[in-house]
Design goal:
- The protein is an alpha/beta fold.
- It folds into three domains: 222 residues, Rossmann fold (3-Layer(aba) Sandwich); 238 residues, Aldolase class I (TIM Barrel, Alpha-Beta Barrel), CATH 3.20.20; 32 residues, no CATH class.
- It is built from 18 helices and 17 strands.
- The chain has a seven-stranded mixed sheet, sandwiched between helices. The chain has a six-stranded parallel sheet with strand order 8-11-12-13-14-15. The protein has a two-stranded antiparallel ribbon with strand order 9-10.
- It is globular.
């Protein structure tokens, strides 16, 4: 069986291969399936840097808004996908206003059509039986348009979607009703996706080995659950064939431009993971709702992955993409012991939660084991925000860890968010004041230019799987449905689109939240100049 594995723009920043796709690649190759990888994200940014920036500046996951982001700019997605079938319909081009922005969207739509035709032709040249897409909220538009083009050119080729971009039932319904996709894999389907891919290619029902998946049958969605599980440690990620047929990881390394380099890592950075899933329930984080089964790889398996990467020879810096690296303190200590003893000369960074799991002696061991940067789970210094998030975190722990990490030569990256849904205007001001006090004490405690990367004043983005969205009333937040107009002939799509058109309201004008964000940025610039990312 021939398969094509596709990563459409924009999934990552294009400087390194997506980790999830590397596991799917390994599973397919283990089953002796011929795999052609198309990291279009990488190729597109390399060959069209200005057009890539045009794409990101027009539809961007980081845009400050109160819209719940199932997809990026739902109205633009519907327009791009359907307006050629109904050219006379008065389409709402975008949720954003402004003549120039609407013009940008029309230009982008024309460019998207050109790009998808080009990449569809390249994919079909490999004569695949099935095409697998790795999706995220930011690349769902490009993925759907590309799948539509492949379906038009080769109706017999099976198309399978997976990844966090299709994790919600609302998105699954819209995607399957588009007619461009046959099956959506749910949750962690890395190892057993080969069984699902084979059934899609052969146009047969999936056997019992297939992972959880959803299909459209007789106009209704059908969820097929699997009771089988496998040992996750049995699968190592494979970067064979990345980024495109005939390529190698050295292509990423050669194109590791200045835009990817940080003040910490100047060399090519490769992602791996030690665990998946998270049992914490932070208010606006969607990780716990992605359908992932929580598991932890053994320290021995992590070392196996690193040893395999060392044989490739192009990666000296590692990004541990775990949701929370110090989730299990005993496991963390065991891994540090093995990293210290193997002397593989890797530098690395990971996501940490401040507190008991980051003791002074642990931080020194992290440095000896190659740790050069830590991203702390710091979202606010405002106690009301932390209480609403139900996190076992204390400001004192956070400040102490920041000082300890900096004094041991480990750069700390954290984001200070504001505009938490449910806050009132007075609380926004108190949050800014609390942040100033905390940073002032931090500056006095460090006593020198700190190794901090601070992203301040970002408005909270409410993810659809997050606890805040699922239990909005508990946070004093109202979820509202925005109207969507579609042609009458698209009645089978309209309900799915309406279910995706949601925004949160909490009585505070959005302009006030933007003002609070600007105040917070000014506080950080004043107290810790030069540390703002």
């Amino acid at each position: 069986m021939k398969s094509s594995l596709v990563i459409a723009p924009y999934f990552t920043n294009g400087g390194y291969p997506p980790l999830g796709a590397a596991y799917v690649n390994a599973a397919l190759r283990d089953s002796r399936c011929s795999v052609s990888v198309f990291d279009i994200q990488y190729v597109f940014r390399r060959d069209n840097p200005h057009l890539y920036e045009f794409l990101r500046s027009t539809i961007n996951v980081a845009r400050e808004t109160n819209v719940i982001p199932f997809v990026l700019d739902l109205k633009f997605l519907l327009y791009s996908f359907y307006h050629h079938q109904f050219p006379q319909f008065d389409w709402e081009l975008t949720a954003r206003s402004g003549r120039w922005y609407r013009l940008r969207c029309r230009v982008l739509e024309q460019l998207l059509r050109s790009w998808t035709r080009r990449y569809a032709a390249a994919i079909l040249e490999t004569d695949p039986h099935v095409v697998l897409f790795s999706t995220y909220v930011s690349n769902l538009l490009f993925s759907l348009l590309l799948a539509k083009e492949i379906r038009a050119k080769a109706p017999g080729v099976g198309i399978l979607f997976g990844g966090p971009g299709c994790a919600t039932a609302e998105v699954q319904e819209l995607v399957l009703r588009s007619g461009a996709v046959d099956v959506i894999a749910i949750g962690d389907a890395d190892r057993r996706v080969r069984y699902l891919a084979r059934s899609v290619a052969l146009q047969t029902s999936a056997d019992s080995n297939a992972p959880d998946h959803v299909i459209l049958r007789n106009g209704r969605l059908h969820y097929i659950r699997s009771l089988r599980t496998e040992d996750e440690d049995a699968l190592l990620p494979s970067y064979d064939g990345f980024p495109i047929p005939g390529g190698s990881l050295f292509d990423y390394q050669r194109n590791w431009g200045a835009e990817f380099r940080s003040r910490v890592f100047s060399q090519f950075l490769l992602p791996i993971d030690c665990s998946r899933g998270c049992d914490r329930r932070c208010a606006y984080c969607s990780e716990s709702g992605l359908g992932r089964r929580r598991y932890q790889r053994s320290p021995e398996h992590v070392v196996q992955i690193l040893e395999k990467l060392r044989t490739i020879g192009c990666a000296t810096c590692i990004s541990f993409n775990d949701s929370l690296f110090n989730h299990n303190e005993a496991w963390h200590d065991a891994l540090l012991e093995r990293l210290e003893g193997n002397a593989m000369d890797f530098e690395w960074w990971a996501y940490y939660h401040p507190g008991a799991g980051l003791r002074e002696d642990t931080i020194r061991r992290m440095r000896r084991a190659g740790c050069r940067m830590v991203t702390l789970g710091v979202d606010s210094f405002y106690a009301a925000t932390l209480r609403a998030m139900r996190r076992p975190m204390h400001i004192e722990d956070c400040l102490r860890n920041l000082m300890q990490l900096s004094n041991n030569g480990i750069t700390t990256h954290f984001a200070l968010l504001t505009g938490f849904p449910g806050h009132n205007v007075e609380e926004l001001g108190v949050e800014c004041e609390m942040t100033g006090r905390a940073l002032e004490s931090l500056r006095r405690g460090v006593g020198r230019s700190p190794l901090f990367l601070i992203k301040a004043g970002s408005l909270v983005r409410v993810e659809p799987n997050a606890d805040l969205c699922q239990n909005a009333a508990a946070y004093n937040v109202e979820i509202k449905t925005e109207p969507i107009r579609l042609p009458a002939e698209l009645g089978h799509v309209t309900e799915a689109a309406i279910n995706l058109s949601l925004s949160w309201q909490d009585g505070v004008p959005f302009v006030e939240k933007r003002r609070a964000a600007l105040r917070l940025r000014r506080v950080v610039r004043r107290l810790l100049p030069g540390c703002l990312t």
